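I had to read the description of the data format several times before I understood it. The format is easy to grasp once an entry is in front of the reader. For illustration, here is how one protein appears when written out as sequence plus structure tokens:
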Amino acid sequence: MINYLKNTEIDKNQWDTCIRNSGVMKPYGYSWYLDIMAPGWEALVDDEYDSVFPVPGFRKYGIKYVATPIFLQQLGVYSPDKSEERKAKEFFFYMPDFYRFIDLCIGQNIHTEEYRTTERTNFILSLSGPYEEIFSSFSDHCKRNIQKAENEGISYSTDITPRELIDLFIANRGREIRGIRERDYNRLEALMNHCRINRKGRIIGVRSAGGSLVFGIFMIELPGFKTLLFVVNTEESRNRRINYHFVNELIRENAGSGTIIDFAGSSIPSIASFMESFGSSREPFYRVYRNSLPWPLKMFK
């Protein structure tokens, strides 16, 4: 039987055990990730945590709604031994009625008339084979950029704070992106600190000759899975092709290990093309949307 649980009613140990046993290696469904990025999150739980479905619920103008938090790509069903797509549809059937507005990205396609579903694309790369074999699947454009980067004398640094990386993002691109608030950056900073302290992630970057940060990446690392969650480029890093160099070195270091690199996807064509140029595979996920608010509240976003 599926039950709706408030945050204080969730058994986080049983929850994380279900996530771990589901075989999904992405970090987004773990309680520690949700606690930081979607404070107060709620849940739908089947039986004794046989299957779970996180619900990032929020409130605005007195209206309760469900939305995908910033810096959290997708959620959905986590189930060790049941059909996830069939289970996803069942979980949505049990979604509490007070959530009249839902805009959620999940890993399953629910195929229902009640919700408008839009496919989105993530990119993943398996490092099961030797480096030479993986390199052969790179696009010619990618190989040329790697060659250019190798002549740049790139040296990596790990003495980068979360706030320094976030400030670099804001200075270079963050101001152009609507919808990211200071609280979102604060949550991202907290996530970086949590991962670094608990050895679940690293910040790696490149500094200029003068010591200023010109490239940085926050990577979440779970057993057998690396998520390139937050990548920051500058004009200098693009000119030096640092992003190509970094991914190539990451592949070289982990080739043959069976590790999966998750590029975390992008709807920006140039970034998606970069991710795909390494021979990565497309992995669909889905934006599920329903607005059942009465007019004029239907204009609520």
